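Q: Given only this backbone (182 positions), what sequence would you predict?
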C-alpha cells in the first residue's frame, strides 16, 4: 500500500476533538492516582496539557513531556488502579499526536485514555470484568460526533493490550455500531 493510500486527512479541529474526548475520559480517574501518590502531579499535568490543547492551545513539547511524565508516574504507583489512571492521563496528552495513517494502532490515540480509565474504574469498584459495560458506556457518553467521525476513518482497534486492549475494542465496536448516536 502506498503511503498516500494510507493517509487520512486530519484537521487541527479533529485532533482537538479527540484530545478533549481523551481528557474527559481520563480526568475523573485522577483522584485514584492522587490518593495513591498524593505528592505526584504528573498525571494531572498531562490532563491539563491535553485540555489546554483541546481548547485552542498549541500542540508542542509540553504535551509530549507531560505524557512521558505521566507514563513514568504510572510506574511509581502502588496499586494497579492508580497505574491505570496515570496511563489514562498519559494517553490523554498523547491523543494530540494521532497520526494521519490508516493503521489500527492509531486507534490507541483515540480510545486509549478511555480504555485505561475504564480499567482503573473497574479495579476501584472491585466487581471485576463484568462491570465493563458501565465503564464503556460512560466513556461513550463523552464521544462527540466529531470523535466518532475521526474514529471511523481508521481500521478497527488492534488485538492485544491486556484488559485495556479488551475494553478499547469493546468501546471501538460500540462507537462504530450503527445504533450508536453521539
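A: Predicted residues:
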Amino acid at each position: 500500500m502506498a503511503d498516500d493510500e494510507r493517509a487520512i486527512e486530519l484537521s487541527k479541529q479533529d485532533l482537538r476533538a479527540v484530545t478533549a474526548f481523551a481528557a474527559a475520559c481520563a480526568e475523573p480517574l485522577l483522584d485514584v492516582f492522587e490518593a495513591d501518590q498524593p505528592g505526584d502531579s504528573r498525571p494531572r499535568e498531562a490532563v491539563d496539557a491535553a485540555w489546554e490543547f483541546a481548547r485552542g492551545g498549541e500542540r508542542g513539547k509540553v504535551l509530549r513531556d507531560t505524557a512521558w511524565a505521566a507514563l513514568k508516574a504510572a510506574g511509581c504507583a502502588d496499586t494497579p488502579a492508580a497505574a491505570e489512571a496515570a496511563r489514562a492521563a498519559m494517553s490523554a496528552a498523547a491523543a494530540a499526536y494521532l497520526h494521519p495513517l490508516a493503521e489500527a494502532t492509531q486507534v490507541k490515540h483515540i480510545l486509549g485514555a478511555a480504555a485505561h480509565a475504564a480499567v482503573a474504574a473497574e479495579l476501584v469498584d472491585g466487581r471485576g470484568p463484568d462491570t465493563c459495560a458501565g465503564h464503556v458506556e460512560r466513556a461513550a457518553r463523552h464521544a462527540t460526533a466529531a470523535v466518532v467521525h475521526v474514529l471511523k476513518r481508521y481500521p478497527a482497534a488492534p488485538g492485544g493490550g491486556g484488559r485495556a486492549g479488551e475494553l478499547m475494542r469493546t468501546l471501538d465496536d460500540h462507537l462504530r455500531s450503527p445504533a450508536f448516536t453521539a
